[in-house]
Amino acid sequence: MKAILVLNIIPNCKNKMTKIFEFLLLITMISCAAALVPETSDPNEKLKQSYELVAGKRGIAADKVIGQAMQMFQAKGNKEGMARAYYAYALLYRSDASHDRLKLPDNFRAGEAYDIAGMIYKQLGNHKGAVDSYILAALFYGLGKNFDRSGPTCNTLIKAKTAAGEDSQLIADVVHHQKKMRCI
Questions:
Q1: For the chain, give me the number of helices (H) and strands (E)?
Q2: Residue 164 CB-half CA count within 13 A
Q3: Cα torsion at 69, 73, 75, 79 (round to 10°)?
Q4: CA-CA to 82 of 20 to 30 Å: which in 26, 35, 76, 110?
Q5: What is the pLDDT of residues 58-72, one digit of tens each?
């Protein structure tokens, strides 16, 4: 009886077989996380798609597309691309694109993603990228929590200061955040 009611709510169907087919197609599309996401072999394009999916609150699809981009960057040995993929994950974790298996926002996971991006940028010698990533990591680690000097917020800012190298502007930026977050 319930199936007949569901079939009757699908508008503009000529017969029951068409209704059944459209109902099954609808169920299939709803269950497919990446439905209506164009296929591409370009990992940068996949990251762009992930931003659109996050904006559309399609967290599971965004998670899948970011993972695919990350695998492509890893296969090519593209560390900068990997750092950008971690930024995309952080954006996802900061969002409210929740799903049953993906509870968001998750500020701590966003912090972890920024932290990993910072490590990658530091390995690449990109001081600004590393410092910016570590500062964002510290902000999200500490969001809504007390800023404990021994916690991940302050420890991440220590990493940021180390990553700044000799750049006085980057060092000043880190010190500003350390004071703001009561780490010094």
A1: 9, 0
A2: 19
A3: -150
A4: 35
A5: 999 999 999 999 999
